[in-house]
Specification:
seven-stranded mixed β-sheet, Ribosomal Protein L25, Chain P, 553 residues, 3 domains, Rossmann fold, 24% strand, alpha/beta
């Protein structure tokens, strides 16, 4: 499958190979360990991993841990687990950390100073912003731009030795303050930050900025194609400037692709952190979140996510992908693979008055009618059952084909029953439906050949297990959360109905042995996944697939 991956990036690589590229294709995924990976990250992973696979190349995982303020080993560990889960393997090129290259980055900066291509600046961030100019006006040079090489070398060493306060000085590349590309107007490449680093401890108090560290890291690892999201396209000239002007053994090639934006959700790590830390959700793995760990907990599979990424497309133009496409991908997969089970979400008791008390028989029902190899299972049948409250109507609407007074319905895989009586409580609520069964039914069909249109599912009251079902909807009511109306905040569009909890549900007894992460189709109800919390199942997706019709057009 991966050998057939084709997009504009593979066309670039094909052209490079045609023009004499002799190096083995080498890609990387460089996440910052300051949050959990999300479905947008899955696109970047897929692109770099699948291209390495296609060309029999290497794929690196490199943690971009150059900002210690928000980084944590919790995120390092979660990224590692997500990468292995999504791809099914460890990175073929190895696992690296940007912080392991700090000494080399420092030496590259020193060489730039010696070559007159970098200087220590005393301007504050606000002053640097003012000096930078605008899209229509050139910037003006810092008054510290012409410091001597000797003074800059000493000041930079003093920065490393901790002699200056945080933010009081920066090291800037000396490029062109009049460049039409704002990123080339003497960008900062080192800043002073006193923060404990998750790997380096307190060894460093200066840290390289991303645009400086990233190309150095790529070059040192032998990356042939540095593929990143489209917002870095204007940064490419700086990427190439760093590689051209630093003493590095290799020259990677940067190319950009559009980010993955999905309806009714956010991808900004800042927003995701806010949702978690302000407790708008239960955590990073709340099944309403777009994080990979949340999708995993909800019941999504790696194959469905990668299928979604491919169907959404790899291009340079930004677009907004309907979340229904993701739902279609997992629904299409589970329709073929998920075992069928019976679950009653709003139970009402059904008593078969002509069935012997204390008797129990077992009916054999298929585990998946679409897959004979899935086999079958035996389900206990007793005098007292539970059925869905919505499968009975005292005053049925037109064309209602389920159970009604004096009406017949087929119990899935078992007998045909006829409603004879209903029992209500003091509030007028139906608490029991009394029926008689056609005990001569064979394989769900009456022996006299009469037609019974409706079929409903059921669970033996004696054998049923109790469970809670968690039903999820979109986290946001707004389709494009990246474009909120003026004067509003994205939090204003949190969906108050994004989670519905159904308690006291009745499930067939085989589900008592369900393992965490195991997926099922609850017949007529939807696809569910066993949660890590005891007695809880998360709804992955409903049975209805309106998006499939769109794909066929």
């Amino acid at each position: 499958m991966l050998e057939n991956v084709n997009n504009f990036l593979t066309e670039i690589i094909d052209e490079d190979i045609k023009n004499g590229l002799s190096e083995r294709i080498h890609t990387r995924f460089p996440p910052e360990p300051n949050g959990y990976l999300h479905i947008g990250s899955a696109k970047a992973i897929f692109i770099n991993w699948s291209i390495a696979k296609k060309y029999n190349g290497l794929f690196n995982l490199r943690y971009d841990d150059t900002n210690p303020v928000k980084e944590d080993t919790e995120y390092v560990d979660s990224i590692w687990e997500d990468i292995k889960w999504l791809t099914g393997e460890e990175p073929s090129g190895g696992v690296y950390y940007g912080s392991d290259y700090f000494e080399t980055c420092f030496n590259c900066a020193v060489q730039l100073i010696k070559d007159g291509k970098a200087y220590v600046d005393d301007l504050t961030q606000e002053e640097m912003r003012q000096y930078r100019g605008s899209l229509t006006e050139p910037g003006k040079p810092s008054p510290y731009r012409d410091r001597s090489v000797e003074e800059n070398l000493q000041l930079f060493q003093d920065m490393r030795d901790g002699k200056f306060a945080d933010g009081s000085k920066t090291l800037r590349a000396k490029i062109d303050m009049a460049s039409p590309n704002m990123n080339l107007r003497d960008p900062a490449i080192y800043r002073i930050v006193r923060a404990h680093h998750h790997r380096q401890g307190d060894k460093w108090c200066i840290y390289p900025l991303y645009d400086f560290a990233h190309p150095i890291q790529d070059a040192l690892e032998g990356i042939t194609h540095s593929m990143c999201s489209i917002e870095f396209e204007n940064h490419r000239p700086l990427y190439e400037w760093v590689v051209d002007n630093c003493p590095l053994p290799h020259h990677p090639k940067q190319r950009e692709f559009a980010r993955l934006n999905v309806t009714h959700t956010v991808m900004s790590k800042r927003y995701l952190r806010q949702l978690v830390f302000e407790k708008h959700v239960e955590g990073w793995d709340d099944p309403r979140m777009p994080t990979l760990c949340a999708l995993r907990r909800r019941g999504y599979t790696p194959s469905a996510i990668l299928d979604f990424v491919q169907r959404a497309g790899i291009a340079k133009a930004n677009s907004l992908v309907d979340i229904k496409l993701l739902e279609h991908c997992i629904r299409e997969e589970l329709n073929e693979t998920a075992l069928r089970r019976m679950a009653v979400t709003e139970p009402v008791k059904l008593v078969i008055t002509n069935y012997p008390e204390g008797q129990c028989e077992e009916f054999e029902v298929p585990n998946n009618p679409r897959n004979e190899e899935a086999g079958s299972r035996k389900v206990p049948f007793t005098r007292e059952l539970y059925i869905e409250k919505s499968d009975f109507a005292e005053v049925p609407p037109p064309k209602f084909q389920r159970l009604k007074p004096d009406g017949e319905v087929r119990l899935m895989g078992a007998y045909i029953v006829k409603c004879n009586e209903i029992v209500k409580d003091d509030n007028g609520e139906i608490v029991e439906i009394r029926c008689t069964a056609d005990l001569e039914t064979r394989n769900g069909m009456p022996v006299d050949g009469r037609k019974v249109k409706g079929t409903i599912h059921w669970v033996s009251a004696e054998h049923a297990i109790d469970a809670d079902l968690y039903l999820y909807d979109n986290l946001f009511t707004l389709e494009n959360v990246n474009d909120v109306p003026e004067g509003t905040d994205y939090l204003d569009y949190l969906n108050p109905d994004s989670l519905k909890k159904l308690t006291g549900c009745k499930l067939e007894p085989s589900l008592a042995d369900a393992k965490e992460g195991e997926r099922f189709q609850f017949v007529r109800m939807g696809y569910y996944c066993k949660d890590r919390e005891s007695g809880r199942f998360n709804r992955i997706v409903t049975l209805k697939d309106s998006f499939a019709k769109t794909l066929k057009k």
